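lol ok so funny story. i was supposed to be doing the assay writeup but got distracted and ended up predicting the structure for this chain instead. priorities right. anyway since i did it might as well share w the group, maybe its usefull for someone
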Amino acid sequence: MKCIKSLFYLFITVSTVMVFSFCKGEKPDDNGEDSTTGSSNLIDNKQISAQNVFNSIPARAEIVKLIGESKIEYDPSYLNNPDVASKYSLENSRALNLGAYGADLSVAGAFDQTQESMLFLKCVNILSKNLGVSTAFDQHMMDRMEAYKENRDSTLEIIAQSFRKADEFLKQNDRPGTSALILCGSWIEGMYVSVEIAKKIESPENIIKTILKQDESLKHLINMVEASNVSADAKYVTDGLNDLKVTFDAAASKKTYDMETIKEISEKTIALRKKIVETF
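and the output, tada:
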């Protein structure tokens, strides 16, 4: 039981490490200059408010501690299929699945799954190249991953830095919608894994409470996506997130914490995630 509960917190942490790194994207760069410009100003305030939510998520250092204490086993069945990365041809699909694969890469890295990490890193490289942000995942990044492969916390930080670099590039080039969809892909992947793990627990009350707490991060995510004016092709994502928000609110009002409480959340998350990973 302790192992499974810790696994839940681990997955929800690593899948949002990269998301949280985006929220820190407004800080000045090494030259003391603001790294955001133009159209990104529209979503700055919403990103800052979201930071308060992501600050409550366990830090990367706690991931390593959870793994060491709980002897958690790696289970790749929760993650997106790495064999289909090259099939995504639409920009929206590439962005959403770059976010999903980024979360998966963090999971594999946290478990010291070197071979799996390389698979997901290849997926990230393919999609980032197709999106025009390959400089964030260049040879220098891969060399750093190799140099610090024995240090899981450092590996996760390198991943987060690379996604933050991609985020800054997209915003500076008037593509905040693409950046927002990367965030969506990561959040949805994390929620999908969370509800799947909850199904395996005999007494899931605490985990269900944690799932329901993601209502706040979902609210801020919706704000960011809507402010970023994503294309009409991605409307299904916005609609899906708004539909999930209604379901979250209804579940929270029940004041009960069994699987029936999050049944509809699970069903809608699975359906939205399925459409994301199967839309090429």
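Residues 23-43, 46-64 have pLDDT under 50 and may be disordered. The chain has one domain: 2-278.
back to the writeup now i swear
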